[in-house]
Amino acid sequence: MALHQATASAPVNIACIKYWGKRDTKLILPTNSSLSVTLDQDHLRSTTTSRADPSFERDRLWLNGVEEEIKDGGRTATCIAELKRLRREEVEDKQPNEPKLSTYAVHIASYNNFPTAAGLASSASGFAALVSSLAQLYSLPVSPSTLSLIARQGSGSACRSLYGGFVAWDQGSNPTGIDSLAREVAPQSHWPDIHALICVVSDDKKGTSSTSGMQRTVETSELLQHRINHVVPQRLKAIEEAILKKDFDSFAQITMADSNQFHAVALDTEPPIFYLNDVSRAIIALIVEYNRVSVAAGRGRRAAYTYDAGPNAVIYTLKENVKEIVELVVKYFPQREGSFKDVFELFAGVDVAATEGKVVEG
Ligand code: DP6
């Protein structure tokens, strides 16, 4: 009897150029390209184990030990179906002696190693790990960018977690989505000094989800059209250049401008969406002042804030500034209930997935 099982993990990523808006909600095709930094595997990752067995009656999924329903035609079902199709086409049809794993149901268990207190969404690392673990289980001879096409259909931002380092998600133009995939801009080793600080302002789950919020923005915001057509393309080019040149001042300027515009577009939505709170705005003011002093001293910007669909700040900075910034944040935001919870220091950009795949003969 063979045991067909594989485990893989994938890290969280935080966008510098935000994805916000879909042109196809089923295939998850974005209205603009985006770019992110993949965070440290050791601190923030999802780890997923998948097993295929002829005795399993149906596909099942557990998240942090709690079973979740796999809805027909839903995002998880789509990812599983796509990977089974690849198993059939790439392995079983070509090598008839391989076991017909695509015909077995799968059981999938996924865990996050980050506390819910980190206040971070887990869909990016979660779907990236799910897709990686099934790809290993099925011994698929495919590249991370092919896997990113599938992870994208789980959650848009998940496609960027298939790579470590600095990652672009090219929006593509083909209606099938075949060219809407992740691309490595530079590996983590290119610029290992970049660190990320996560300032947990609130770990509440309340608010508008990314999925429904961005759909409302697409339907109602005029500013989004300006962003898509006249801002993001130039910004992407400029930030890629900044990354390749290790120009932190430009990287910071673009990252903060894009976070600001993303929240402006949320505010331009009908009804408006507010993701930042007073503490988030006070952290912005602190970083602006920190950079003002730094620029005046001829050192350029040394920190960049960015916010996703919630009030928690991620601050990118170079390693040499981490201690100073943590001290500032803790000084101005003494940790107390309702104001500011915690600050996590993370090293950005470690390469993806120390993975382990196995087929055990038993
Ligand atoms: C603000 O990837 O969570 O974090 O594709 O609907 O699952 P779905 O949305 P999701 O949106 C992420 C939005 C963001 C920006 C970003 O990560 O680029």
UniProtKB/TrEMBL annotation:
Catalytic activity field: (R)-5-diphosphomevalonate + ATP = isopentenyl diphosphate + ADP + phosphate + CO2
Against InterPro entries, the record matches this protein to: GHMP_kinase_C_sf, Mev_decarb, Mev_diP_decarb, MVD-like_N, Mvd1_C, Ribosomal_Su5_D2-typ_SF, Ribsml_uS5_D2-typ_fold_subgr
Catalytic activity, EC: 4.1.1.33
Instruction: Please state the pathway this protein functions in, per its UniProt record.
Output: Isoprenoid biosynthesis; isopentenyl diphosphate biosynthesis via mevalonate pathway; isopentenyl diphosphate from (R)-mevalonate: step 3/3
User: Keyword 4Fe-4S on this protein?
Assistant: no
This protein's GO cellular component annotations are: cytosol
As for family, the record states: Belongs to the diphosphomevalonate decarboxylase family.
Query: What name is this protein filed under?
Result: Diphosphomevalonate decarboxylase
